[in-house]
Amino acid sequence: MSTVNLNLPDVQIREIRINSITGFLGNADDLVKLSADGLKDHNRKFTQCIGCSTARAGCMVSMVTDAAVISHGPVGCSSCLHDFNMTYRVNASLRNKTNRRRRIFSTNLQEKDTVYGGNAKLEATIREVYERVKPAAIFVLTTCAVGIVGDDIQSVCDKAQEELGIPIVGVACEGFRSKVWTTGFDAAYHGMARKLIKKADKHRDDMINVINFWGSDAFADWFAPFGAKPNYLTPFNTVEELSRAGEACATVQACSTLGTYLGAVLEQDFGVPELASAPPYGIAQTDRWFRALGKLLGKEDIAEKVIAEKKEKYLPQIEEIRKKLQGKSAYVAAGAAHGHALLDIIGELGLKAVGASVFHHDATFDSGRDENDQLKQRVGDYGDVPHFNVCNKQEFELVNALIKVHPDVMLARHGGMTLWGAKLGIPSLLVGDEHAGMGYEGLVKYGKMIVETIENDEFVKNFQKHALNPYTKWWLTQQTDYFQYK
Question: What does DSSP say about strands 67-72 and 137-142: parallel, antiparallel, or unpaired?
Fold first, then answer.
């Protein structure tokens, strides 16, 4: 049964759609088996912090270069969106894109608007934004205040679209809608698929969609032997470029957590097949990824040639890195699929995985394919991962776990997580480019960074002597999942 439905004005949340959870502690292998047999979330008696779906939706829509974004709610709710202005300016250079200031606005709802409703204010804001910047499209993001009041933003957006003649995309992403913050990605993609992406009469064999964040341009080199170029979704696209996603011959993922919904939508509603493979992290999975791509494109011989050439060039370098990391241990803290990807990397480089903190867990994927399950692939390729904690950015659980396992290195992708490793004297590596560890060459790049991080530990050792730990000795001796309902 399909989990995607573009006829709905708002996307279904992940808890309902694919049985996603935010609480679990055990072994990775147990989690994989429970995901297949029936998975129950462990709610918390105490929550320290949580991610917001509005920010995740804003992460995607604010990167559409010629669009504008309206945060419909109190002005404070738009503060997280302005972070993406700097993110865009810094990362656009990785794709040789022109830096453009993001156009982000707020309806600035006041107390009286929560009493009488904010529809009139939203209508006026849409018109003013259009007159000010003449965008190719406008995205309207909901916030918790709007969800509580019950503003009908979809009707307002549809009416404004008829009046102004450009797509006005309503994105239902208020924070309390879902405990799984990545539902915000789904909400953004749902709106894009409903109002921006067009169905194509024929598909181009020279264009492959890549659902990603804003990493470096790794895929151009990989697609070139197959006679294709990447169409990155959505960072740095124009509205017109985004509308052509339905013309591609295939869709691949940089992160299965990010793109599970859009990949399934493009296949089901636009006839663009999604690659039946998790992203290429680690040698085993990179082999599978290239072979799956070759099979999908009908170019298996080219895939085998690419694999052979890449291995001849990079395997000796990978082996040298393994020797340097022999006997070392690592802990991973990241979003779900990228956390699994980092576990692939350390498994391939010979590091012992002593635990992980991932922000949520998807029991299945919208494609319904087992091949997209990167955690299952990891357990099969490199073995089980103990002390596998699913926690939606609960830093008190991360600190509890790190003190118990005290690895030789901590790997993370999100800012703020490596601080805790450093406070405990653990060399910690933060890499924001999700493409950095992909493929055979990515193992070399990431491996060198891990070696350098471990060898240059003087700062964290000194930092540990002066850092303050806000958590009590009582908490640090409890089980990591002490506050989770079993």
Answer: parallel
* Helix (H) or strand (E) segment spanning residue 330: strand 329-334
Task: Give the residue among 274, 255, 246 at the shortest CA–CA distance from 369.
Answer: 274
Q: In the Cβ-directed half-sphere of 347, how many Cα atoms lie within 13 Å?
A: 24
Q: What is the CA radius of gyration of the chain?
A: 22
- Residue 9's alpha-carbon distances to 38, 153, 183, 187, 472, in angstroms, are 29, 10, 14, 10, 47
Name the region of 151 (left: φ>0; alpha: ψ -120 to 50; beta: rest).
beta
- Beta pairing class for 329-334 and 352-358: parallel
d(CA 187, CA 265): 12
What six digits make up the tokens of 395? Answer: 């830093």
Query: Of 21, 24, 23, 3, which Cα lies nearest the Cα of 12?
Result: 3
pLDDT one-digit tens code per residue, 52-84 = 888 889 888 988 989 999 999 999 888 877 777
Please state whether the peptide bond connecting residue 22 to the residue before it is cis, i.e. omega within 30 degrees of 0. no
Handedness of CA 212, 331, 347, 314 (dihedral sign): positive
> What pLDDT score does 77 carry?
86
Buried b / exposed e along 158-171 (16+ C-beta atoms within 10 A): eebbeebebbbbbb
Instruction: Report the distance separating Cα 214 and Cα 60, nearest Å.
Output: 10
Write out the two tokens for 28.
Answer: 């990775």
> Which residues of the chain fall short of a pLDDT of 50?
1
Beta strands in 380-451 (DSSP E): 388-391, 409-412, 428-430
